[in-house]
Amino acid sequence: MRIIAASLSFCKFGLESKPGQMLRDAGIEIDANASGKKYLEEDLLPIIGQYDGLITGADEVTRAVIEKGSHLRIIAKNGVGYDNIHVPTATEQGIYVTFTPGAVEQTVADTTIGLILDLARNITRGHKSIHGEGWERIRGTEMWEKKLGIIGLGTIGKNVAHRARGFNMEIFAHDPFIDLDYCSQNGVKSVDLDEIFKTCDYITIHCLLNEATRHLVNEERLAMMKPSAYLINTSRGGVVDENALIKFLEEKKIAGAALDVFEKEPLPKDNPLLKLDNVVLTPHIAGYSHDANLKAGVMVAESVIAALQGKVPPHLLNKEVLEKEQKNG
After folding, report:
1. Rounded CA separation 263/284 (Å)
2. Would you place residue 132 in the very low, low, confident or very high pLDDT band (cuts 50, 70, 90)?
């Protein structure tokens, strides 16, 4: 049994730790992505036919790649966002697709609160000022008792809300499948998107990227924000219309933004965001911690081992494959 570990974070953390050992103990040979970059379709197409399993991060697991993977039994996503995997093709081919729900929720929630604090208190700007031999005492604002809008009240959104209560924030949330019991028990106001953009001092995004959410944050919604408001995105870059956001930041129509994800990654060196002083940028690290990597790595290993041993893997995304197997059983 042979797999390719394309996920860079799995290769960096998992190969020589518990997840890698779990795979080797199960008799699975692991080939690692040593390129230092995510695999593009053109990288995977010539090699994918050799493997029984694929561990992926942000790699381009397209229809063509999956169709070339004639021996694939599982595609295991090391993460929760699976927009880089053409799941319908995998389902058609009878290939399991798994992910790692819950592994990064605490880490991403921590990062989100950290980014809000950074925006409020100008921590990064102050750091840059001193390193630039300046002493710019930038006046900031507070988180205390401010209005927080959460777009996507899943496990990460709920953990952000839990932390925000420590700052006595007034919490608003929007989610098409909102947990009203949670809202009533935790003092969270369920509102529509427009109210979040018109009302909140900080707006943080925690939804998946799909056709319904692509450019959910567009020029029209940005125009609803208060000039003193901030936008935080630790979900997927495509949820925000980046060009519209750049315009609003350049013209100081909103106070600022903190972005961990971008429409194109890595962020091109000529991206206008890099020239702005009212934005905090991080390189897609919100879910990247030793704790989260270990949890996700173990979940990935469990899924791969189960699938290659002829069992149904845990954390299954495309249950249609299981249903088809049971029907044909």
Report:
1. 11
2. confident
